[in-house]
Amino acid sequence: MSQVSKSAVQQGSAYIVSTPIGNLGDITIRALEILKNVDVVYCENSSHSRRLFQTYEIQTKSRTLYKDFSERPFEKIIEELQSGGTLALVSDAGTPGVSDPGSQLVRTLRENRVPVIPIPGPSALTALLSVSGWQVQPCLFLGFLSEKKGKKRNQLLEWSSFQGVIAIFESVHRMRDTLSAIREIFPSAEILIGRELTKIHEEILLVLPNTPLETLKFAEKGEFAVLIRLGGKKMLNGCDGEADTLDGEGKTYDH
Q: I want to staple 163 with a disulfide (CB 3.0 to 4.6 A). Which of 31, 32, 137, 231 is the partner?
């Protein structure tokens, strides 16, 4: 295993570090090296990140990102970096700034000409795309839709003529309503649902256009990623991409 020393971490730089979305084994070697060697790790919630730090013996001091900022956000962070300090930013899971907090900090760092370095890693979006079997160019990522049913429906209607794959994230409490809106607006679309990706109770479910939504069986807990296939775009070799099909009751793949 390669090692990164304090001197190899660039002084005055901020590292945006992707962390596991479930399975802690998905952390990258580079991410661990950065987290162990920066001066401080800013977390979406430092208590939530404690399990990751304990598992990999990361002893770097950590702070919850938004806890102490008010009228002049991130001033302390900018001062630390301009004095030669180094930091990493992590969200609770996945990549900061991708439907997670972080973009405001990154924007402020760039405005102050601070080097911002990405440390890529796990992503629910790319994980689900990789097992879809579909041609995923183009792919439109909408993140989390509105909690309000009417606004959510309008957000989807805006893309009713889109030809490709639409990707969204959703919480368990709104999943059934979101599926109903998708079926109403895109009645001929295939839908691929990923629940608790990379975790012990992971489920991946393909919903065909003729599958009654009321027959779908999945555990109503955890976080969801959803792909909507529109237009039946051909694969590069001229064949339709196919994920595993299933009967009207739905089929899940548990790990």
A: 231
Express each pLDDT in 66-90 by its tens digit: 765 555 678 889 999 999 999 999 9
Measure Cα distances from 144 to 12, 93, 240 in Å. 33, 15, 28
Cα 57 vs. chain centroid, distance in angstroms? 24
Q: Is 213 strand, coil or helix? A: helix
CB atoms inside a 10 Å sphere around CB 192: 22
32 membership: H or E segment, kind and range:
helix 29-37
Report DSSP letters for 82-93, one per residue: HTT--EEEE-SS
Cα–Cα distance measured from residue 231 to residue 165, given in angstroms and rounded to the nearest whole number: 9
Reading phi first (left if > 0) and then psi (alpha if -120 to 50, else beta), residue 251 is in beta
Task: Please measure the distance between the N-terminal and C-terminal CA atoms of the chain and give it in whole angstroms.
Answer: 28
Q: What is the mean pLDDT of residues 204-212?
A: 94
Q: Does the predicted model carry a pTM greater than 0.85?
A: no
Domains of the chain, each with CATH number or no CATH? 13-119 (3.40.1010.10), 124-230 (3.30.950.10)
Tokens of 236: 């590069």
